[in-house]
Design brief:
The chain is an all-alpha fold. It has a single domain (3-102), classed as Four Helix Bundle (Hemerythrin (Met), subunit A), CATH 1.20.120. The chain is 69% helix and 0% strand. The chain has helices spanning 7-20, 27-39, 48-58, 62-66, 69-87, 94-102. The radius of gyration is 13 Å and the shape is globular. The chain starts with 6 loop residues before the first helix and ends with a helix.
Length: 103
């Protein structure tokens, strides 16, 4: 499936979930969010599935989960900007990404 049909909605979803994450997460929250972000690599459509899995290996989510909401949002931004860099897209700050996807 062509990314133009779903990728922007996926970034919106990822940033939304990161910003809904607790500022001070419990172990249960860390576990639940880790499971979500790790398992996502198995259900994303097309080639993005493989790219996301590669980004997950290079930038593991676990340390960012321990840091709370702001750290997790920066992790999503790192994944986003890695994708953008590879595909010649716009590299964003966190504020720009939030405005673009959650405006």
């Amino acid at each position: 499936m062509d990314t133009k049909y779903w990728l922007e909605a996926e970034w919106t979803s990822l940033f939304s979930k990161a910003l809904a994450y607790p500022k001070v997460p419990t172990l249960e929250s860390e576990h639940d969010y880790k499971r979500y972000f790790v398992d996502l690599q198995f259900v994303l459509p097309g080639s993005f599935k493989h790219e996301y899995a590669s980004y997950m290996q290079k930038i593991p989510v676990e340390p960012f989960l321990r840091g709370g909401r702001d750290h997790l949002a920066h992790w999503v931004l790192k994944i986003h900007n890695s994708y953008q860099r590879y595909h010649g897209g716009k590299i964003m700050t966190l504020d720009e990404a939030i405005q673009t996807y959650l405006g």
